[in-house]
Design goal:
The chain is an alpha/beta fold. The protein contains 11 helices and 19 strands. Strands 1, 11, 14, 15, 16, 17, 18 and 19 form an 8-stranded mixed beta sheet that branches. Strands 3-4-5-6-7-8-9 form a 7-stranded parallel beta sheet. A two-stranded parallel sheet has the order 2-10. The termini are close together. 45% of the residues are buried. Bound molecules: pyridoxal-5'-phosphate (PLP). Pyridoxal-5'-phosphate (PLP) binds next to loops.
Length: 376
């Protein structure tokens, strides 16, 4: 299934020539199966692969999940949908979350993309195309139950009737949760009740409310289609609870060179780190231009053959500096591979160090990494 074949991780000792991101499609498929198993028997589980599958490669991820049985995919933009259409067979439904912008409706029909209609204007636009083509066109309807972001307002949803939908073939009613990663937050129940009330008022159709975290709120939030994104890629779904998902990423970067500095010497831009003891400083080939966030400066740590290595000084555009004082000298050859992200120090741990969420860590992953796909 994986284009890269079996495990091809760089064994320790073999020089690494460029920062390398290894994406485990087997872990992503296993996470999808685990999410689907949270639902009642027979429930469908989609995959949200917007923003290039959160940076991991929408084509590769969707192809692997299609083989595992996934038939529903969500992207945000028309352009993402067009690209994905060429990577999955015709029986895969591709929903485009932002819906139809006026003037783009024809392209949705040509590429067999299913818009998520978010306003009365978008519905009218899609209805007009259906009438021009003389055939009913499938669409999802999104209602706003509390996010105040996209979707029909409750007042607009009230106006919807058979006439407003004439020519549209509604295949999914959906809404998005505000704070599903906090099971105790009362907004979850408020949104569930609003969603059910809207659903009762509209023509019967399959429904979907749960994103990754929503899957873990329980069956009441599931309806007919689960809609996880982040959890597929290993993001922990529930605040304060053990993460049931498998990490899917490894990021290894090579050592460029090292030097010894003396007590009182500063390291990196603005000397935000000053040596308190003689220190061996290593420079690695990764920086904020690769999405290794500047907010990691003086806060993150890396791993080298089981040793924890602290990041010292500011993150630069193309380099970071680390304290190698505890490492054996003979290991410090140019090309020595350091792990920035791996199973023992995953995107959730990194998010804590950077003071952000794991979604941002993922979607920031840079385009300069050599990417390899494995299937374990
Ligand atoms: C991004 C998105 C999802 C997936 O959310 P995760 O938290 O990543 O699981 C689901 N539904 C909508 C409408 C989204 O925008």
């Amino acid at each position: 299934m994986s284009p890269a074949g079996p495990m091809v991780l760089t064994p320790s000792g073999v020089p690494l020539t460029s920062a390398t991101l290894t994406i485990d499609l087997g872990a992503i498929v296993e996470n999808w199966r685990l999410l689907k198993r949270q639902g009642r028997r027979g429930i469908e589980c989609a995959a949200v692969v917007k923003a290039d599958a959160y940076g991991l490669g929408a084509g590769e991820v969707a192809s692997a999940l299609y083989l595992a049985g996934c038939r529903h995919f969500f992207v945000a933009l028309l352009e993402e949908g067009r690209r994905l259409r060429s990577r999955v067979p015709a029986d895969a439904t591709i929903f485009v979350l932002h819906g139809v912008m006026p003037g783009t409706e024809q392209e949705f029909a040509v590429h067999r993309l299913t818009p998520v209609l978010n306003s009365l204007e978008q519905i009218a636009c899609w209805r007009a195309l259906a009438q021009r083509l003389g055939q009913p066109l499938p669409a999802a309807l999104q209602v706003d139950t509390g996010m105040a972001r996209v979707g029909l307002s409750p007042a607009d949803a009230q106006e919807l009737d058979e006439a407003a939908l004439a020519g549209c073939r509604p295949v999914l009613l959906m809404s998005h949760l505000v704070a599903a990663e906090e099971p105790g937050n009362p907004i979850n129940l408020v949104q569930l009740e609003r969603f059910k009330a809207l659903r009762n008022r509209l023509p019967a159709m399959p429904a979907s409310l749960a994103n990754s975290s929503g899957v873990f709120l329980g069956h009441d939030w599931h309806f007919d289609l689960l809609r996880p994104g982040a959890a597929l890629y290993g993001v922990s779904p529930t605040v304060g609870q053990a993460n049931p998902l498998r990490p899917a990423l490894r990021l290894q970067v090579p050592l460029i060179q090292w030097r010894d500095v003396n007590v009182g010497d500063g390291v990196g831009y603005n000397h935000t780190w000053i040596a308190k003891r003689p220190t061996r400083v290593g420079t690695l080939s990764v920086g904020y231009a690769d999405g290794y966030l500047r907010s990691f400066s003086n806060r993150a740590w890396l791993t080298f053959r089981g040793h924890q290595v602290p990041l010292i000084g500011r993150v630069s555009m193309d380099t970071i500096t680390v304290d190698l004082s505890e490492l054996p000298l003979d290991a410090l050859q140019p090309g020595a591979a350091f792990d920035l992200i791996h199973a023992g120090h995953d995107i959730n741990a990194l998010a804590l160090e950077a003071g952000t969420n794991a979604y941002e860590i993922l979607t920031s992953l840079g385009s300069r990494y050599r990417r390899q796909y494995i299937d374990t």
